[in-house]
Amino acid sequence: MKALTVDVICQTLSNRIASGDFAVGGRLPSERDLSEQFSTTRITLREALGQLESQGVIYRELRRGWFIAPPRLAYDPLLRSHFHAMAEQQGRTAATEVLDAQRVSASARLAQRLAMTEGAEVYRIRRLRRIDGRAVLYVEHYLNPQYFPELLSFDLTRSLTTLYQEEYGISYGRVGFTMLPMPLPKFAAPALKVAAGSPSLFITRINRDRHDRIIDCDYEYWRYDALYIDVQVREEGQASA
Amino acid sequence: MKALTVDVICQTLSNRIASGDFAVGGRLPSERDLSEQFSTTRITLREALGQLESQGVIYRELRRGWFIAPPRLAYDPLLRSHFHAMAEQQGRTAATEVLDAQRVSASARLAQRLAMTEGAEVYRIRRLRRIDGRAVLYVEHYLNPQYFPELLSFDLTRSLTTLYQEEYGISYGRVGFTMLPMPLPKFAAPALKVAAGSPSLFITRINRDRHDRIIDCDYEYWRYDALYIDVQVREEGQASA
């Protein structure tokens, strides 16, 4: 009986969310109000809310309650459209904020990824990216300055892809992605306004130009509930773009 | 000064782990012992441990302490090798346990994924998969019985890929992947021996045969720290296999 009740509550809440019942501010009524509406216990209600959370339908904010989750962005590594294009193709509004941009020396691990020597000077650009106003991505771009002299003097809120093309005549070639689900590291948490240790998706991109030279490396820290990876693979083990 | 100390502790611990210092049982000394070894406070030590955790170097077990993380499995959706092959290619030992296998009726969502009608009978096979003895993947396979008559009478610890080929002459064609980082749902937690709500990666695979008919759909729930996604994309937006 109890399992049925949880399912019925889930289904009813899902339907009400889908029909726009709670659209104002995107916030659900309090757990107490919801328990009363469903004539159920807090325990059963929380079980139903937990199920909806794991389906990505709602999410919880610390001390603020439950909110309707905006749809996740589909991220297709094979399409390789840049952040703003990807958002716009999906009917969303993208915004980029530059946190800082400076010269730093490459750590051993970064140097290896960029095929440079440890301690070599690289450009580091840290940016925060929003979808429909919500901060979803904290990213650190590391660039080999050899290919992009004076890059730091440009407007860095623009797409780097476009900047590379227009100012340096450089286009992306091969790209390597690794994607690690992991707890959000402490340094990335404040910008995303999420508790450190929350689930996140960490994406490393190593980008090459058309001459197969490694030109930059991005470390992307995503809110876990802001995206999903979507890949269609054809029979031959090749991908359909 | 404090930031330096945390970094130094991280680096020293990383080096000791890499050199095999703690190999026995894979367990780190207690936090108290480690604080003493580094002549530091528990707070600083925990900050260092937290950093190593977010790098995937160590992980925490409830009430048991800190452990050295085994290497993550590289999961390349473009390679499409099955679980056992993927593990063996990476020098790991795979094992599969069948939790149950039965006929169930398709929910609306599942029916849509399988291109069947809601309530239609499907086979559901639930399995637990291990790498080097550790439970890393809880998976639910949903099969269209039309293509696999009497499949439930076979040994289901085998690779389904092989079973399809050998018993039904069916090979995979196009595959669609979606990958969602999300809190581990309650029903998947006990088999993985992880707390419900822990970070996980949920992968849905929709598999077609060479005639482009949808033959099955897998729901994979991975321990977040057991894998990473690795994709190499060529210039044309095509993938290199």
From TrEMBL, chains A, B:
Protein name, per record: MFS transporter
Annotated CDD domains: WHTH_GntR
Keywords, sorted A to Z: DNA-binding, Transcription, Transcription regulation
An example Gene Ontology biological process: negative regulation of DNA-templated transcription
Ranges where the HTH gntR-type domain occurs: 3-71
Pfam families: GntR, UTRA
Organism: Erwinia typographi
Residue ranges the record marks as coiled coil: none
GO terms assigned for molecular function: DNA binding; DNA-binding transcription factor activity
